[in-house]
Amino acid sequence: MTDIFSTLAFYLERNFVVNALIVGVLIALCSSLLGVTLVLKRYSFIGDGLSHVAFGAMAVAAVVGLTNEMPLVLVITVISAVLLLRMGKNAKIKGDAAIAMISVGSLAIGYLLMNLFSTSSNLSGDVCSTLFGSTSILTLTSFDVWMCIILSMIVVLFFILFYNKIFSVTFDESFARATGQKAGLYNLLIAIVIAVIIVVSMQLVGSLLISALVIFPALSAMRVFKSFKSVTVCAAIVSVISALIGLLTSILAGTPVGSTIVAVDIVVFILFSVIGKFTNGGKA
Amino acid sequence: MPQIKCTDLSLGYGSQEILTGLSFEVNAGDYLCIVGENGSGKTTLMKTLLGLNKPLSGSIEFSDGVTSRKIGYLPQQTDVQRDFPASVQEIVLSGCLGRDGFRPFYSKADKALAAQNMERMNITKLKKRCYRELSGGQQQRVLLARALCATEKILLLDEPVAGLDPKVTADMYELIDSLNKDGVTIIMISHDVDKAVQYASHILHIGSELFFGTRDEYIAKEGAHHD
Predict the structure, then answer these.
(1) Which of A160, A171, A230 sits opposite B94 (nearest CB)?
(2) CB under 8 Å to B203, separation ≥6 — which residues?
(3) Which of A134-138, A212-216, B62-66, B196-200 has maximum average pLDDT?
(4) Chain B closest CA to A173's CA: distance in Å?
(5) Nearest CA in chain A to B72
(6) pLDDT score for A234
(7) Which one is the CATH code of B1-66+154-227: 3.40.190.10, 3.40.50.800, 3.40.50.300, 3.30.559.10?
(8) What is the mean pLDDT of residues B146-164?
């Protein structure tokens, strides 16, 4: 036991580990906030689709040879979020099919580009770390860290200022529209913020595992809690704690960061489902 | 001045007309039931009154402080709501958002209004309860309280008793009737013609034949049909 603590203490003296923990906690916080909305508005697939777009964008950024990929990835993903939302409404291709198309398409193009133009000697390693997050969280530059802090602040601020509106358009969009709330605008803002969250989270868990980070804490909280506020607060806490446990475990045990965090999220979900069964008499 | 006056409305989507030549008016304190077969355009008419659809032609005039935005609306329940984690209080308060514009938080006045409407709907003791665990009748009361937060004058109810058992349905009709007696104008979409005739002051029948008039005129006309 003392061994574990001394190893931890050793790691915590390192700047890059502290950076990783800060970024991990912020990402976990942001990604959990809109989880409830995503799940209930049936937007989970948009989140999934966007994460693949982000992968494609990452490949483009790598090919172009940018040192800081994040701004480009952010712009492309936000634009895709807006497009997906528009498409969902009135296009000939229905929403879920459009998402499937875009997400698989960008995966393919992304991999193709990386294959054709990559200068790296370890191509499959690059692809794998973009998809599953690998250890990149321990090699964050200070630019990455600051970008993450600023974007997280924006997401949290947006969420607090628009909390009541987000509740309203999630619970009952037609009532919101009918009573003059700008539901279209709020939907657009929500989609943009989801895009931002995905780009930020990509560094932690990679593009394939982002949806888990967004959805699991919300689903866990919904098993046990019954008001929107308590579910939101609980999801945020669950997400942050799972991320911390996952990060520390992965540092100590040398497991991949992203999948370790998701594994912790899954365990928590099972735990909360059982608790929910007992407290609600199996109704939830 | 009628609160809502529709003149020669044509409704539909794109080039497809569903309803034409629709004229009617709603005065303060009226209880208008809109009846008609499925697919006759009830929902389209409702959306048009709420300002979510534009009429193909004709006009809708609002007066007496009513606008399409100030109609309290009781929508049919959606699947999303059936497993939504929300407390009664959170839902009722959200009725105040329409007037709040971009102000991020609820004011004291909003909270007072929500409390008052929960009292009016007799759901104050449920205010911390989870919406999805309430009975169908209780859920409708919650949504009515929310609608009352958005308006004082006029409520538009979309099949408010759909899926409720007979006892709860009767209570619901009584509740709506008492709101009407308090001076709230009621527009109700329904396919229960018997109940519509029992409570409404006016009937609008849409579909293959259009009818608009008072309840008594409707009964006389229907009676003539049956003879």
Answers:
(1) A171
(2) B32, B33, B35, B196, B197, B211, B212, B213, B214, B215, B218
(3) A212-216
(4) 10
(5) A179
(6) 93
(7) 3.40.50.300
(8) 86
